[in-house]
Amino acid sequence: MNAFRHVKLFKNGRNQAVRIPREFELPGEDAIIRKEGDKLIIEPAPLQGLLALLSILTPLEETFPEIDDPPPAPLQL
Prior knowledge:
It contains one helix and four strands. By secondary structure, the protein is an alpha+beta fold.
């Protein structure tokens, strides 16, 4: 993606901030920022745990074939 957009920087308390335009919006509420030379890289924060991952997955719209799954044989202990 080579899209770019000129944005304004502003102060938020003692921090410098930038409004991220809608077309560059990141998912979630957290992000990771790092500096590479003169560039700042902002990435979505990794998901936290299995429940967070499952919450963003869309359900499968497939039907699965029936399988033969008999109960296990009795076991003598």
